[in-house]
């Protein structure tokens, strides 16, 4: 025991707060507050939450948060807490799966290419044959054509009308194919669910909350992309442009209070656990 819990409890008592009062102020569940006062962190969801809850508790009762966190670091109990890692649950089997799909697609592309080449060659030959038909056969006339005094030179009783030459038609170029993004669910392991984002040139996140919930967004370098991981209040929303990352990890304490949108497309949860981690791998 480092005395951390006693100091926090004494400060709370001096403020005249009960644990119920402090729960209302900090939005931290009463059992977590009691665990901090008893320096029993076994029920906590992780070491990250312990530090965050101690900081909020200290600020609520008027103590120096840095000093209280220093006391926490001296405690031996927190060493047993599970450290959060950011390694994405990527497996070699996914890579083999992608190669298998590519091997199935290549022969189809080659066949389609040869069919297009044959069609183009046939069309070009038919156009060349049509362009050679430029002469007009005219039957000879044995009769002599005479001009009277009032007839202008060049005018005859029979006029030859040239057949119009058919104009070549040019087929318009096909319109370029417009790709639509693919946000695909891959797998779930424990509290980690993995998705992939493909066929899109940008990666924009929007997170809406309709209840108090802890939210944190990190990149592959474990850098926080939100101003700071924190408890977002009911009705809060954040938007992030993460087009330059390889993947993100979104830590969601209460999925039922959180909607995640990727370039406007709503992400569907595949796990009911609270909290849970959402990994999105961006394949540019």
TrEMBL record:
Residues 156-175 have a biased composition (Acidic residues). Keywords: Membrane, Transmembrane, Transmembrane helix. Pfam families: HTH_25. Residues 143-176 are annotated as: Disordered. CDD domains: HTH_XRE. The chain crosses the membrane at residues 106-125. InterPro entries: Bact_Cytoskel_RodZ, Cro/C1-type_HTH, Lambda_DNA-bd_dom_sf. It comes from the Bacteria. This is Helix-turn-helix domain-containing protein.
């Amino acid at each position: 025991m480092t005395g951390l819990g006693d100091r926090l409890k004494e400060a709370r008592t001096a403020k005249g707060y009960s644990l119920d009062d402090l729960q209302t102020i900090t939005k931290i569940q009463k059992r977590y507050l009691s665990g901090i006062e008893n320096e029993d962190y076994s029920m906590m969801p992780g070491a990250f939450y312990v530090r965050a809850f101690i900081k909020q508790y200290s600020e609520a009762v008027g103590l120096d948060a840095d000093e209280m966190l220093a006391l926490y670091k001296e405690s031996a109990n927190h060493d047993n807490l599970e450290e959060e890692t950011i390694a994405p649950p990527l497996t070699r089997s996914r890579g083999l799966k992608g190669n298998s799909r590519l091997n199935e697609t290549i022969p189809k592309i080659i066949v389609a290419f040869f069919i297009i080449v044959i069609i183009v060659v046939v069309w070009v030959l038919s156009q060349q044959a049509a362009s050679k038909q430029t002469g007009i056969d005219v039957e000879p006339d044995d009769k002599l054509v005479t001009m009277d005094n009032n007839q202008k030179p060049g005018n005859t009783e029979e006029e030859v009308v040239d057949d119009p030459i058919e104009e070549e038609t040019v087929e318009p170029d096909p319109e370029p194919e417009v790709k639509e993004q693919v946000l695909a669910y891959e797998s779930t392991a424990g509290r980690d669910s993995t998705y992939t984002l493909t066929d899109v040139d940008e990666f924009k996140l929007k997170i809406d909350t309709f209840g108090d919930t802890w939210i944190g967004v990190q990149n592959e370098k474990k850098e926080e992309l939100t101003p700071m991981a924190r408890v977002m209040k009911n009705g809060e929303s954040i938007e992030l442009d993460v087009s330059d990352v390889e993947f993100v990890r979104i830590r969601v304490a209460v999925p039922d209070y959180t909607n995640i949108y990727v370039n406007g497309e709503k992400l569907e949860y595949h796990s009911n656990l609270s909290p849970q981690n959402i990994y999105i791998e961006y394949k540019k």
